[in-house]
Design goal:
Blueprint lengths: L6 H16 L2 H8 L3 H15 L4 E2 L6 E2 L1 H26 L4 E9 L5 H15 L3 E9 L2 H10 L4 E4 L8 E16 L13 H4 L4 E4 L4 H4 L7 E5 L2 H9 L4 E4 L1 H9 L3 E3 L6 E11 L6 H19 L10 H8 L1
Parallel strand pairs: 3-4, 3-5, 7-8
Antiparallel strand pairs: 1-2, 5-11, 6-9, 6-10, 6-11
Helix pairs in contact: 1-2, 1-3, 1-4, 5-11
Length: 321
């Protein structure tokens, strides 16, 4: 009686199925490269272990018994399960398993959102079982949580570089000066003189921005904000001027709530980076996602059909000429 499955039993079961598929012992010889007498012996051994006859074989031809037909169904299920198990066992070290926690600054340009989404889609095409979690964070929070291990990857503007982390450039974000309805400059000339704009109060950032500090066109900072939405609210009060990415400001401009002051002069650019642990400290999940993000980024840069900038800065500057 067959109570356990050993390697010999699996081999005999595979022989049985091969004989069934071939339609008889004589026809299975060429497939299995085994003599007819050996095959007959192997089938007999399997039947002894099972305790019942599987097939009729002899001058009358080959045919399965009633129990043999039922055994064939069970045997095929067993072989399929074993094959699947072997495949999983062989590739278990290749499957990406775990979590990927990402921190992002608010109001990322739509084009870069699309780029990041493409990287996620490419990663999902891998053999993976990874749970994504995406958080909106300030740059300071992103760095702090990557150092502590709460986040794996961060996207943002990082004015302070932590030596233990790795920073990779992702894209350049343009910032332009705006004011809100009710501000003295809102209904004035089409282009506001930069020196005139500097005489008014401005919204600054709670964090240092080296690229902004390098600009001479900034008046007295009378209000602070740590995110783009807060800047928008302060500008719409009509009491301040301030810098925003065009992609953030555009909906408010179209509603007549904000206006650009002088896109030629009152503007600056900031580099947006991907930050993570250094390569030797990253796990395989993080490494794989960063690889997919780099690939998508390179393909986007190489594509002749891509727009010159995600924030449409080039088109806007051309329209002003």
């Amino acid at each position: 009686m067959l109570t356990t499955i050993a390697n010999l039993d699996l081999r005999l079961i595979r022989v049985f199925l091969a004989v069934v598929d071939a339609g008889g012992i004589s026809r299975a010889q060429s497939t299995l490269k085994v003599g007819q007498s050996t095959l007959s012996t192997q089938l007999g051994t399997l039947e002894v272990r099972l305790g019942y006859r599987l097939c009729e074989r002899g001058r009358g031809g080959f045919r399965l018994t009633a129990k043999g037909k039922r055994f064939e169904i069970a045997a095929r299920q067993l072989v399929a399960t074993v094959t699947q198990f072997c495949h999983q066992a062989q590739h278990i070290d290749r499957q990406l398993v775990g979590a990927l926690r990402i921190g992002m600054i608010d109001h990322t340009p739509p084009g870069q959102h699309a780029l990041f989404s493409q990287a996620i889609a490419r990663f999902r095409g891998r053999d993976e079982n990874v749970q994504f979690t995406i958080h909106l964070r300030t740059p300071e929070q992103i760095v702090r949580e990557i150092v502590s291990g709460e986040l794996h990857i961060g996207l943002g503007y990082f004015w302070h570089r932590v030596p233990s982390l790795d920073y990779a450039p992702l894209f350049i974000e343009e910032q332009r000066a705006y004011c809100g309805r009710g501000h003295p400059l809102f209904a004035g000339r089409k282009t506001v003189d930069a020196l005139e704009a500097c005489r008014h109060e401005w919204v600054g950032r709670t964090y240092p921005v080296a690229e902004l500090d390098a600009r001479s066109h900034l008046g007295r900072v009378a209000a602070l904000a740590d995110n783009m939405e807060a800047v928008v609210l302060l500008l719409m009060s009509g009491g301040y001027c301030g810098y925003l990415p065009p992609a953030v400001a555009q909906p408010y401009v179209e509603l007549g709530l904000l206006r650009a002051l002088n896109p030629r002069e009152l503007r600056y650019e900031v580099p947006i980076h991907i930050v993570s642990q250094r390569p030797e400290q990253r796990n395989e999940v993080v490494e794989a996602f960063l690889e997919d993000l780099r690939s998508v980024q390179q393909e986007s840069e190489a594509s002749p059909a891509r727009p010159p900038r995600t924030d449409k800065a080039g088109a806007a500057r051309r329209s002003e000429r």
